[in-house]
Design a protein that fits this description.
2 helices, 11-stranded mixed sheet, 6-stranded antiparallel sheet, mainly beta
Length: 377
């Protein structure tokens, strides 16, 4: 074996030690830095939050075959979509991204549900990515209900079909055509057995579009399938696949609901206001309670109040009172219940919850009421 000179061996020893130190530092950085990778969800009804204000959901409700979605910074892509179902029946699923509330899962800081008569506009923007080796529609869903419920709907669903691939058709039958948002659509009307469905089908594929959701809501009201005193509960964009579907993507999504379009002097549901929040806790090893008071320091009534805040890592809500708090961790939204959903000027509403935590306990460091940042008392 060839022997190395003493100095060469020493230099190589120092170099090896330096490499070991750098590897240790890199490992520490990797362990402590926030994850930058996209989030993949394969659970049947699994979901995650993007952009700090929307929810991406897998929503595999019509099949037992594996389906996975990967949430990106601005949308999601369908990364696995096994199996198929008959094209003359219901689709496999509805992987989607939404603003609002979907079966008690509410997006952070949303001001939905909101009364239709109190909405001045609901601008939205969508960009889709399509594939050819699948049967699916690219569907934009708008949910309307007579009550401001957050646990589903029982009356009217508006579907906008941006694209249709394969031998599928909307629920019901075609009842004519209509011009909405400056575009011409085939209009279909029917019922899925649980609620009415009004579908607007594009004659050819639309890859991206910016529009006002309220154009479709007003068309639905005009057709007698909703009323102005009903509520918009959620705005969703995704896909209904019947066969395959891997590679489909919502490249980007945005949705805003502007309230205050009702009778002058009568703020609509979700009206922003100046606010102050007090957050008092009782903490014990592994658990805590929080008592929260929200004060309206503005000059207008806040109708349909929603307080958004982010629970520190490791905390989870197990029970709440005097408000609905969803989801149970991360970016959560507390919503007033019937009878306590309005805060008059100078008045307050209080609620509380119990939770668990791991690691060091900390309090949230930011609150917003219907999209307006609050001060803390």
């Amino acid at each position: 074996m060839r022997r190395l000179p003493h100095q060469t061996r020493a230099v190589r020893g120092l170099f090896a030690a330096l490499l070991t130190a750098l590897a240790t530092v890199a490992a520490l950085v990797t362990a402590t830095a926030p994850a930058q990778a996209d989030t993949t969800i394969c659970e049947q009804y699994g979901s995650t939050t993007i952009q700090g204000r929307y929810v991406v959901q897998n929503n595999r409700w019509g099949t037992s075959a594996t389906q996975c979605v990967t949430a990106t910074d601005t949308g999601f892509r369908l990364t696995q979509a096994d199996g198929s179902v008959p094209t003359n029946g219901a689709p496999k699923s509805y992987p989607s991204v939404f603003n609002g509330c979907h079966y008690t899962n509410c997006s952070p800081g949303t001001n939905l549900p909101a009364r239709i008569s109190g909405i001045s506009g609901a601008p939205s923007s969508i960009s889709y990515g399509y594939v050819n080796d699948a049967v699916y529609n690219a569907s934009y869903d708008i949910w309307l209900d007579p009550t401001p419920r957050t646990d589903g709907v029982n009356r009217t669903e508006i579907m906008i079909w941006f694209n249709k691939v394969g031998p599928i058709q909307p629920i019901g039958s075609q009842v004519g055509t209509a011009t909405v948002g400056g575009r011409t659509w085939q209009v279909w009307s029917g019922s899925n057995g649980s609620n009415d469905v009004l579908s607007f089908v594009a004659p050819s594929a639309i890859s991206s579009w910016s529009f006002d959701v309220m154009d479709f809501v007003r068309e639905t009201v005009a057709r007698g399938m909703a009323r102005n005193d009903w509520y918009l509960t959620s705005v969703q964009a995704g896909f209904e696949p019947w066969q395959n579907g891997a590679g489909l993507a919502v490249n980007s999504f945005s949705s805003t609901v502007n309230t205050g379009g009702g009778t002058p002097g009568e703020p609509g549901p979700g009206t922003p206001a100046a606010c102050t929040v007090s957050y008092a806790t009782n903490v014990w090893p592994g658990g805590f309670t929080a008592n929260v008071t929200v004060k309206n320091t503005g000059s207008s009534v806040v109708d349909g109040w929603k307080l958004a805040f982010t629970l520190p890592s490791g905390q989870r809500v197990t029970h709440a009172w005097n408000a609905s708090v969803t989801p149970s961790s991360g970016a959560v939204t507390a919503s007033g219940l019937d009878g306590s959903a309005r805060i008059a000027p100078g008045a307050s509403q209080s609620f509380g919850f119990q939770g668990t935590y791991s690691g060091t306990f900390a309090q949230p460091n930011g609150f917003s009421l219907n999209g307006t940042a609050c001060t803390t008392a």
